[in-house]
């Protein structure tokens, strides 16, 4: 009976090791699809995000009204010329490895004839300097928010929790810059944490050894 209990404990430990994976690091509502709209809607709150607004932008926009984001059917337009870029959104993301280099990426589009600008900064969890990103003007006609570009920014977290801040650029002459599809990638994975595939291979071998040990012990 004691041997059987020891074998059961061994199998539980092995299974726990085999299924251990690295914590997921990602935005909540990264594509702005969690709050459905069928048109062009001013928002003072968004799922997963802290929103500051003076009453005009940000706007949650559906492709059926304006734009053509290829990442779902909705995107967000932050303030520009309408509120002198005073509106912004923020979100705190957890699970970072301190000291690693990460890459933030997102899709960005200009509303109209100006080259709209977006400023990305960190209010907590990283000392990486803020940067301004400029997207090409719209293609003309009624094709507002039709040219989508992928932007990237590398940063280093100083904490496991990082607060991201997205805002237009005051006095830049930009219209309302569109953004969508925020992604995060660790460019320098920790050597101390095996990849999930390695865990699976290691776990399979340990399970086999545990089973063989229990079978021989029972004989």
List keywords for this structure.
five-stranded antiparallel sheet, 219 residues, Jelly Rolls, globular, single chain, alpha+beta
Plain-language structure description:
19% of the residues lie in helices and 30% in strands. It is α+β, with helices and mostly antiparallel strands and 219 residues long. It has one domain (22-189): Jelly Rolls (Sandwich).
Task: Give the arrangement of secondary structure elements.
Elements: H1 2-19, E1 40-42, E2 50-52, E3 59-62, E4 74-77, E5 88-94, E6 102-109, E7 117-124, E8 131-134, E9 148-155, E10 161-168, E11 178-186, H2 196-218
Antiparallel strand pairs: 1-3, 2-5, 3-4, 4-11, 5-10, 6-9, 6-11, 7-8, 7-10
Radius of gyration: 24 Å
Mean pLDDT: 84
Count of β-strands? 11
Tell me the distance between the termini.
13 Å
Helical percentage = 10-25%
Main beta sheet: strand number and arrangement? 6 strands, antiparallel
Could you state the order of secondary-structure elements as H and E? HEEEEEEEEEEEH
At the third CATH level, what is the topology name?
A: Jelly Rolls
Strand order of the largest sheet: 1-3-4-11-6-9
Give a short summary of the structure:
With 219 residues, this protein is an alpha+beta fold. The chain has two helices and eleven strands.
């Amino acid at each position: 009976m004691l041997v059987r209990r020891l074998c059961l404990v061994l199998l539980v430990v092995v299974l726990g090791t085999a299924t251990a994976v690295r914590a997921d690091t990602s935005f909540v509502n990264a594509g702005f699809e969690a709050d459905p709209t069928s048109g062009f809607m001013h928002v003072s709150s968004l799922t997963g995000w802290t929103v500051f607004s003076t009453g005009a932008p940000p706007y949650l926009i559906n492709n059926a009204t304006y734009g053509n984001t290829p990442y779902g059917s909705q995107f967000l337009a932050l303030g520009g010329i309408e509120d002198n870029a005073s509106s912004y959104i923020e979100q705190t993301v957890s699970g970072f490895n301190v000291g690693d280099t990460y890459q933030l990426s997102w899709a960005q589009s200009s509303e109209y004839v100006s080259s709209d600008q977006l400023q990305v900064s960190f209010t907590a969890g990283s000392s990486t300097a803020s940067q301004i990103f400029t997207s090409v003007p719209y293609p003309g006609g009624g094709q507002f928010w039709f040219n989508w570009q992928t932007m990237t920014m590398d940063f280093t977290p100083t904490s496991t929790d990082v607060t991201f801040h997205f805002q237009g650029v005051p006095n830049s002459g930009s219209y309302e810059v569109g953004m969508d599809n925020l992604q995060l990638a660790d460019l320098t994975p920790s050597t101390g944490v095996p990849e999930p595939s390695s865990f699976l291979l290691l776990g399979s071998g340990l399970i086999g050894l545990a089973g063989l040990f229990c079978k021989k012990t029972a004989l």
